[in-house]
Amino acid sequence: MVVNTDRRRRHSRSDIPSGEIDSDRAKTCYTEDLRHNRGTTMEDLKVTATGYDFAPARAAMQRFTDNDLLSGISWTVLVGRDIADTGCVGWADKEAQIPLRTDHIFRVFSNTKLITSCAALLLVEEGRLRLDDPIETFIPQLRNRKVLRPGATSIDDTEPAQRSITIRHLLSHSAGLSYGLFDPGTPIFKAYNERKILNPMTTLADMVDGLSDLPLVFHPGSSWEYSVAIDVVARLVEVVSGQPFDTFIKARILDPLGMVDTGFHVPEKDHDRLVAYYAGADLMDPMKPGLTRTDNAPYPGAYLRPVPRFNGGGGLVSTLHDMVALIRSLLPGGPTLLKPETIAQAMANQLTPGQWIRFAMMGEQPGKTYGLAGGLILNPSPIDHPDAAGELYWGGVAGTQWWISPKTGIAGVMMAQRQMAFVHPFSFEFKRMAYDAVKRGR
């Protein structure tokens, strides 16, 4: 499918509704400032904010690796833009006894979504699209959607969608799309898999074609479901920019931030830097000791060679220092990837009152909602730190995580490679201890 470049457009200032992100200075100021103020390099991963005692957090992470619950973990915690703590414990390859280093490469899975969301927001700042534009303005295959009726047992048991999918819906996972992963036995699960919606050989353009006549699982804006919406956003970036998605993010995000080890595959010369991937001994008991190698997940040779799919929802590899550079670029006090008002809007709740994040394996999570670039904690749960209200965060399925807390000025990145680690107790424990370490040091 050829990129539809004739649909690119620029909105005049008068077209931008009240509350919409403005477009002034977007590329010329913010991105160019970053080119002259490169992101975090390996040499920059050193503590610059002193007086914080992270010994308890370090000891806790060491226990997780000693008890064979994690192969290894690396982290950086920021106070403002300064590094309060950074470190590694454990192994990059447990069997070969290769210690984990800060330059090791991780499969970041859904942490990719932050970069894809930022790519779309750059185009919003330039006036080339608006958050409440219907997606069919740019991708006509997604017009005239149908929605599965409640309790549908057939993919054909549908009703017309009450409204169009907007870019805001896509960025906030409220579009009505699915992943075809978390709902086995349902009509949509079967259809997504038959259409190879998630297949690495399916290009973004072909993915959209595959979705074109499949129903949504709810009316756009009426609920929340984790989905391929951010892959659709990646295709949107291609259509609007006229560039392949990997080319766009390299030029507009990765290169300006100095994220030299982030991409859709690991170059052959760096294969030895890719951290081994593990599964826990028991999915239902995350604290049961034991790890099994699973390097061929999600498919044999994953991330070791290029594939046609530029998976905007989960396809990147990266390093600790690259992810720190990205998170730092979204913090006040220096050059930013996006305008401050764009970042503020990305960190604002985009769901309607009463809508919460929910996963099939965990159910609804009251108090946790979604912004334009990640999850949002409105009311901390017992596993969160009490000061986490207002935190923007997200994690990849293998345990790479980031968070930004505007209220406390704390941000952080954690990197691990254990399946389903985004819900493992280690991540919540580290974040709670990081908040406490900073609180004690102030």
Please give a quick description of this structure.
With 442 residues, this protein is of the alpha+beta class. Helices cover 26% and strands 15% of the residues.
Descriptive labels:
Beta-lactamase, single chain, Beta-lactam-related, 442 residues, alpha+beta, disordered N terminus, Beta-lactam/transpept-like, Diverse_Enzym_Activities, Beta-lactamase family protein, 16 strands, Methane Monooxygenase Hydroxylase, Chain G, domain 1, two-stranded antiparallel ribbon, eight-stranded antiparallel beta sheet
Find the CATH topology of the largest domain: Beta-lactamase
Give the spatial strand order of the biggest sheet: 3-2-1-16-15-14-13-12
Helix content: 25-40%
Number of helical runs? 11
Strand content: 5-15%
- The chain-level structural class is alpha+beta
> Low-confidence parts, pLDDT < 50 over ≥5 residues?
1-29
Distance between the termini: 56 Å
| Number of extended strands | 16
- Largest sheet, if any? 8 strands, antiparallel
Question: Mean pLDDT score, rounded?
Answer: 91
Radius of gyration: 21 Å
CATH class of the largest domain: Alpha Beta
Shape: globular
Region (Disordered): 1-23
InterPro entries: Beta-lactam-related (IPR001466), Beta-lactam/transpept-like (IPR012338), Diverse_Enzym_Activities (IPR050789)
Protein name: Beta-lactamase family protein
Organism: Bradyrhizobium elkanii
